[in-house]
């Protein structure tokens, strides 16, 4: 019996460790494909074009919006982020699993287009821990960090819109939970052709 393509959407507040968890998940799951988002924000130290993001100017991004090239897109803290439509659809057609790491706003849009997707919300152990992680990054101004913390509180109130919630207290444990969800979803009777 051949599996059909599986769309996994991972969301959570800024600083919760979504990127770290996803990187570990990819290192441990060879058949998983990553959807690389397009953004207008500047690259952080160590980020490279086409690996973490596709970095575009605001004008370039808006032209892509006009051409309906995004599955979803949103503005967050003054920057635009979008999921390229073509890549997601081509991975699913090849019966592969694709992971999207996107914000809540984008997840809601994707859920309308792909209601059979698996939606996972990553939560911090506490808001205090989340604040420490954000401040520890040292990549944003205090004002941006305060906006991100306020946004986190709002997002956590709406995590009921997701299929699963995984606490990122210890990275290894959280990754194992994510892998277990993927296995369970692949075994779900309704996911078989």
Q: Explain this structure to me?
A:
Helices cover 43% and strands 22% of the residues. The longest helix has 17 residues, at 171-187. With 193 residues, it is α/β, with parallel strands linked by helices. The chain has a single domain, classed as Rossmann fold (3-Layer(aba) Sandwich), CATH 3.40.50.300. It is built from seven helices and nine strands. A hairpin with a 2-residue loop joins strand 5 (70-76) and strand 6. A five-stranded parallel sheet has the order 2-7-1-8-9, with helices on both faces. It has a four-stranded mixed sheet with strand order 4-3-6-5.
Assign a percent range to the helix content.
40-55%
- Helix-strand pattern, N to C? EHEEEHEEHEHEHHEH
Question: For the CA atoms, what is the radius of gyration?
Answer: 16 Å
Q: Main beta sheet: strand number and arrangement?
A: 5 strands, parallel
Report mean pLDDT, rounded to a whole number.
88
CATH topology: Rossmann fold
How many runs of DSSP E, i.e. beta strands? Answer: 9
Structural classification: alpha/beta
Portion in beta strands: 15-25%
Number of domains: 1
Shape type? globular
Low-pLDDT regions: none
Per CATH, the architecture is: 3-Layer(aba) Sandwich
GO molecular function: ATP binding; GMP kinase activity
Catalytic activity: GMP + ATP = GDP + ADP
InterPro entries: GK/Ca_channel_bsu (IPR008145), Guanylate_kin-like_dom (IPR008144), Guanylate_kinase (IPR017665), Guanylate_kinase_CS (IPR020590), P-loop_NTPase (IPR027417)
Domain Guanylate kinase-like: 5-183
